[in-house]
TrEMBL record:
Required for a late step of 50S ribosomal subunit assembly. Has GTPase activity. The keyword Cytoplasm applies. CDD domains: YlqF (cd01856). The keyword Heme does not apply. This is Ribosome biogenesis GTPase A.
Length: 285
């Protein structure tokens, strides 16, 4: 489920994140490991400023491992504290805790030197819709706290939840808007489920997915749909081949392109064809 964002939502979300930021020592930004560039909110860097930041590449189980490693290196070089996670796994709390401790080490050492009593590290989770914020909060809190669903910004009264022994977490994530400016970013957001299918042209999404796989993962594509194509096959012929192979036909034996389109989108989105990363660490900017 995602939101249609309007300027009012965006202003409100920004204001509320700014308010919450005053209460925390560290921000935990959740990105989708399949699209670490496209799933970044465009304004967040500016609002966070110098505050320590942990960046979670979530859904790593659906992304390409090598590419995730490259992203981790790139993010380290950018001066944030990255980790790759499957938000549904049991070790999430430990991994996040370790990284949060590392990210805030200097602040807490400074506090100690000044004789300030040690206290829990305060953190909040932020990110665009569908990246796994609620899943991670619920996992960390070992109970259902954040409503899975999306409201711009942070709406209900926030509470601190204990997360392990060293950390306190705001129980409501900051929900931020995705990037809209660029068509290919929109296609990646749609392909991973971060924006609603009804705000984009589904044909374009399926074409984008097929072109990406034809260029980068041809064997996986051929095997999954049991089709015989190569790197030069025209896209419309790939649609035909999938329709033939899957038996998606209308009366008169015509290929049912709508069904092919939907199938390709869902199979890609659910990582059934393979684990793909659509933003390459080397070239995304
Ligand atoms: P939010 O909108 O950011 O709070 O995202 P949710 O926590 O509601 O997660 C969106 C969808 O992604 C849900 O269907 C989750 O079950 C799924 N999800 C979250 N984290 C992971 C993950 O690491 N791996 C996989 N495969 N699915 C995940």
């Amino acid at each position: 489920m995602s939101i249609n964002w309007f300027p009012g939502h965006m202003a409100k979300a920004r204001r509320q994140i700014e308010e919450s930021l005053k209460k925390v020592d560290v921000v935990i930004e959740i990105l989708d490991a399949r699209i670490p560039y496209a799933s970044k909110n465009p304004m967040l860097d500016h609002v966070i400023g110098d505050k320590p930041r942990v960046v979670v590449l979530n859904k790593k189980d659906m992304a390409n491992n090598k590419e995730t490693d490259r992203w981790i290196n790139r993010l380290k070089a950018e001066g944030v504290y990255p980790i790759a996670l499957n938000g549904k796994e049991p070790n999430v709390l430990k991994k996040i805790e370790n990284t949060v401790v590392e990210a805030t080490k200097e602040i807490f050492e400074r506090m100690e030197r000044k004789g300030i009593n040690p206290r829990a590290i305060r953190a909040m989770i932020v990110g665009i819709p569908n990246v796994g914020k609620s899943t991670i909060i619920n996992n960390i809190a070992k109970r259902k706290v954040a409503k899975t669903g999306n409201t711009p910004g942070v709406t209900k009264a926030q509470q601190w939840i204990k997360a392990g022994t060293k950390m306190e977490l705001l129980d409501t994530p900051g929900v931020l808007w995705p990037k809209f400016e660029d068509e290919s970013i929109g296609q990646k957001l749609s392909l991973t489920g971060a924006i609603k299918d009804n705000v984009v042209n589904l044909d374009d999404i399926a074409i984008f997915a097929l072109k990406f796989m034809q260029e980068h993962h041809l064997d996986a594509l051929k095997q999954f749909y049991n089709i015989n194509i190569d790197e030069n096959t025209e896209i419309v012929e790939i649609f035909d081949a999938i329709g033939q192979s899957r038996g998606f036909k209308m009366s008169g034996n015509e290929i049912d392109y709508e069904r092919v389109t939907e199938r390709v989108i869902y199979d890609t989105r659910d990582a059934k064809i393979g684990r793909f990363t659509f933003d390459l660490a080397e070239s995304a900017e």
